């Protein structure tokens, strides 16, 4: 994923968040991990307990 694609995805998720902020947050997390593209960072991130309101 390119920087421009990530930026577009995050901008699109702003609209999703107005309806379903939990879904938008999860998709933003996924997009950022895809952008970073590092298996070790992704694995460490997945081990963190998450709480969405």
Fold blueprint:
Blueprint: H1 3-17, H2 21-36, H3 39-46
Structure summarized in a few sentences:
This protein has 53 residues and is mostly helical. The protein is built from three helices and no strands.
Task: Please describe what this structure looks like.
The chain is mainly α and 53 residues long. The protein has one domain (3-46). 74% of the residues lie in helices and 0% in strands. The chain is built from three helices and no strands. It has helices at residues 3-17, 21-36, 39-46. The termini are far apart.
Helix content class: over 70%
Q: What is the overall pLDDT average? A: 95
Radius of gyration: 12 Å
CA-based shape: flat
Strand content: under 5%
Sequence stretches where pLDDT stays below 50 over 5 or more residues: none
Order of helices and strands: HHH
Distance between the termini: 28 Å
What features would you highlight for this structure?
53 residues, mainly alpha
